[in-house]
Amino acid sequence: MEEVPTRIEPAFFEDSIPPILADLVVEIQGAASLLGQSLNEDAAFELSDLVRVMNCYYSNLIEGHNTRPKDIERALAGAELEEATRPLALEAKAHVVVQREIDQLNRLGKLPIPTSGEFISWVHRRFYEEMPAEFRFVEQADGQKFEIVPGVFRAKAEDDVSVGRHQPPSSQYVLAFMKHFSERYKSAQTGATNRIIAIAAAHHRLNFIHPFTDGNGRVSRLMSHAMAQNSGIGGKGLWSISRGLARGLNDKTEYKRMMDHADQQRMSDRDGRGNLSAKALQDYCEWFLSVALDQIKFSNVVFAFDTLEARYRKLAETLIDDKRAPDVISAVLKHGTMDRGDISLITKTSDRTARNTLKEILDLGFLKSSTPKTPVRIAFPLDYRDRLFPNLFADVEVDAPAPKVPAFLMKTETKSTTMPLATASLDVEFQKRIDFVPMLLQTMGIQFIIGKIAAEALADSGGQEVDWRDVEDRVITEAIGEHGFSRTAVIDDLSKFSPGTLTENQKDDLTMRVYEAAPQLVAKYNKKFEGRGPKR
Questions:
Q1: Residue 306: Cβ within 10 Å count
Q2: Could you tell me if 219 and 125 are in contact, meaning their C-beta atoms sit under 8 angstroms apart?
Q3: Do the beta carbons of residue 479 and residue 485 sit within 8 Å?
Q4: What confidence tens digit (pLDDT) does each residue in 414-440 have?
Q5: Rounded to two decimals, what is the model's pTM?
Q6: How would you classify residue 531: left for phi > 0, otherwise alpha for psi between -120 and 50, otherwise beta?
Q7: Phi then psi for 387, rounded to 5 degrees?
Q8: Domains and CATH numbers, the chain
Q9: Contacts of 536 (CB under 8 A, 6+ apart)
């Protein structure tokens, strides 16, 4: 494959927007418009900083860095940190700082187009400028360490990378790819529907290019956050895409699986006109937007005024003996800020008693103010956030609508779990797998390849016996040599779905053939990305 920027195509859906995506956009817009609607602007602003910490926590979790929210808060406050937790806490702080700056640009109406090369480079630069020194290096496979240059795209041969089985563009072509990326998604800025769908599509395509030596995942998630703000679905900063990506709709492995799924090359002439699969991009966008909708609905429940007020009152009643304190907290939560002199109107007591009540609330951190005499405003103290919001950082049940799982994911799971067990007679099992071939054509990945090649073999056989060993060998060749699937994945899917692999002996033979063929096929797959210049 030649290293031309059009390798990322299709980048979008120019000809016609799939109805399922258009419907999701309408739902997202409706849910986002309700988010924070019942909250005072001051309360929403205060909560948005908590959501930044949540976004950072889950973004780091995706990268395998489990940083405690309290450590992130301590790093943001400039407090002393334990030596063991300091690097990860400062890394997390960098993420929050950059997101704050993005949100500030948005509030001022100065947010650039988030898919522009300049903005993406700025996000990376600011992130690594804030990063602790020990995280500013990347280690190559040979053990050599190279310093990460903030905001600079890959450009030198030593910057070439592999991401799992995906081979991003060679470093010398990254700038050309990023120019193409920026132009393609700039054209997607026309219309709210296009802008929202582009959040999903651009998220994958930026990671596909992998423009930096490190930090691409975090930069892409910050870009997605900025795109949500720019598209009018930011919901006052009260929802986090990273939380959804880390958790998925059904399980926590979905993000990486769906990113991998969208890497697929075009499967057939009916699969779009670009280098990559249009169907896989649609699947990915449907999943990504479903995740976004799920998170917006979740935040609508968690941050609704009535439920938030009830939790806060219950907490105050537990910790403060003064029975008037919950009323004060409720009033400030409702109005955002309150003059100190008005507290007595809420408590229906003398000014002196009201001051004592207020002091106790301030000491616990439930309210705060800039100076001892300025108005008080609502706060969400670190020590009690787990009790106020028990489901932000943990798997705690919340009375929110169940996520809507895309049909193609449900089909795949159903088909995988309803396949007949190997304990059935071989003849019955064989026929069931034959009958199941058309269903495989509605799936994705290796299962689709099995279905496609098996259907061709059955059609060509004219009712005669099919050489299933040959079918399996063709699947192995295409799945590994053309699409870069792993040996284990190929063996697993062929064992489940091939009519030619029913017994343990057949599975052993299949395993041996895969392992024998794999080295040459992997080399073939990798060679597609080596030493190819751009078209002139």
A1: 8
A2: no
A3: yes
A4: 444 334 334 446 778 888 888 888 888
A5: 0.76
A6: left
A7: -85, -30
A8: 5-32+48-299 (1.10.3290.10), 305-379 (1.10.10.10), 419-527 (no CATH)
A9: none
